[in-house]
Design goal:
Blueprint: H1 15-25, H2 28-34, E1 54-55, H3 58-61, E2 68-70, H4 77-93, E3 96-100, H5 106-120, H6 124-128, E4 140-143, E5 158-163, H7 178-202, H8 209-212, E6 219-226, E7 238-241, E8 247-252, E9 258-262, E10 265-268, E11 276-279, E12 289-291, E13 299-306, E14 316-317, E15 335-336, H9 337-347
Parallel strand pairs: 1-10, 2-3
Antiparallel strand pairs: 3-11, 4-5, 5-6, 6-13, 7-12, 8-11, 8-13, 9-10, 9-12, 14-15
Amino acid sequence: MAATNKDDVSTNYDRKSELKAFDDTKEGVKGLVDAGIAEIPRIFYHPPDEYSINNTSDSEEAQFSIPVIDLKGLSDPTKRKEIVADVAEASESWGFFQIVNHGIPVDVLEEIKDGVRGFFEQDTEVKKQLYIRDNYSIPFVYNSNFDLYSAPVTNWRDTFRCNMTPTPKTEDLPEVCREILVEYSNPLMNLGKLLFELLSEALGLELSHLNDIDCNKGLLVIGHYYPACPQPELTIGTSKHADNSFITVLLQDNIGGLQVLQHNMWIDVPPVPGALVLISNDKFKSVEHRVLANHRGPRISVAGFFSTGLLPLTKLYGPIKELLSEDNPPKYRETTLRDYHAYYREKGLDGRSALSYYKL
């Protein structure tokens, strides 16, 4: 996805000034589209990938079956055992899977997507009041590119972040989507607890292990808005990265664009109606993924990040001691989630894994 343009040879390009000018509008990528641009600003040009990674062809992609796990029947011990085995296989081989029959009603899934769209498409002057940079102490923040000034490339998307733990006051949430944020977060928290149970069992641990170490105590709901792009071949919706949460539960709309890196190839994750995508010591992969820019749009996605990185907790996390042995020594040093979250934010989406910083 290399960007080529005659302006690339110019010595007059001041990226920092262009970033600030874009940031100061407080209108994000949507503001550029609303202005009717035909060519994207240079800050959005995406350089060639550091490594040679290509999209799969149709014939190659046919070799890979995106894991879809049906959670129906968990109360039956035999069926639960099968589901846990599927979770283990998908987590070890892929680092992600899609889930159906997860207990969140389809109408709630549709309403949260509508709520995200409604926030970004409301009156610009109202939305601007919530545009904030580098303040993680308040419940709701809207901006474009959390790593705008640190990442090597600007992504073609706008985002809001809502910290749902502890439950925010009603007046701290934007009116256009406050009710559905709460309505969606409650069953999402229940689903997270269930997923941590299944992952604990899949690791051969006690069912309550991951919940007991507070993996389910923090939830961030992230709303992404990817406007239609006039030159999608020059940019990216979201750069290659792995998430900084314990697990991420992702809802995507029918436009698609999500890809995961598997066998050094980018593989499309097709939208499945009513399905949620689950992204998770190297026993289970933390899959690298990205989102392509598209002529179609806007694309809406809603990510539930289970993480306590914004909470004032001092608990240390590292390789699970019950899984370590002489043959399987720890590969990472311990850290607090708050410090890990801060490092991830400072580093930005630069194509490198944040976990590598903590390798022993």
